[in-house]
Specification:
- With about 375 residues, the protein is an all-alpha fold.
- Helices cover about 75% and strands about 0% of the residues.
- The chain has 13 helices and two strands.
- A two-stranded antiparallel sheet has the order 1-2.
- It is globular, with a radius of gyration of 20 Å.
- It starts with a helix and ends in a 12-residue tail after the last helix.
Length: about 375
Amino acid sequence: MGMKKWISNAKVPLSMLMVQLIAIGLQILAKVILSNGTFVFALMTYRNIVAALSVSPFALYIERGAVRKLTFAVFFWLFMAALTGITVTLGLFYYGLKDTSATYATNFLNLIPVVTFLLSTILRTERLELNTRAGKIKTLGTMLCLAGALTMALYKGKSFNLDLHHHQPKIIDNSKQNNKTRGTLFLVASCFSYSFWCILQVKLSKIFPYKYSTTLFTCVIASVQATVIGLCIDRKPRSWRLGWDLQLVTILYSGLATAASFSLISVAIAEKGPTYPSMFNPLSLICVAIIEALFLGEEISVGSLIGMALIVVGLYSFLWGKHKSVKATPKEGGGGGDARPAAPESAALKSSSTVVPIEFDSD
């Protein structure tokens, strides 16, 4: 009986650890193949196709009637969700990852809930609530996260190398990472695009509340968008050619990871709430930093460590404040209607554990 209870209690934390392991694999594999010349939009196209195929059984079986609900208005919002949430977000993220490092880029994933909160406040869909303790903690967490991002971008300090294979050929060519400023701009723009996607879910979830079908259609549309943009940039067949190599492994892995993460995050949110998955995000950051330093020869700087620490502390402060404000909202509003302004932020909290947006707010 005790073992059954332990397994039941450990099910959700273990599922979130699995999501972080998936995220670690995504970051490292993407960094390796992008540094070795993989065309970004080819990777995005194939990845979205595999992701669509992976989630299609759930959409076709669980939400069989969703297709009949498709209208021009729904298609428009699906198109915008694909554009902001996958095509622009993932494209900018991959180019930022290519110009920097997996550790540096992963830090920006932790900023997504905070950036969404800032945009939601500007657009007046979220209140600052500075007159409450939770609001003050959220604001403090936001400031710490922004301070961490600025520290990483502007301050380097001393660097040290933990590479275990410094006498062997490098897996990636670090000499090509020569434009950190450009990479930072790409990653910041990616965060803002992702945050706009989160805000779009408020509208999309109202008119098309089918999360599996939404993911399916979004991935299909995003694959078409990536193909069109990619062909405008590079039409050379070799840029789109697939071989039996790490590139194919990464594409298959990332597509299947979408479906797996979708299921695991959905279960965690249903049992623990929308802030729970984001609490585990710093684990992937720490693991990516260690793996990249040990096996890919990436240097760790004092500025990066200080920035990571500020972002992690800021993220947990923000999540604590968000959790408290969500709990207080029904009491203040006296009903479920007042909880809607938190939806954009909730979408960010739900999906920031992965690179591709895969969880849609359907409250």
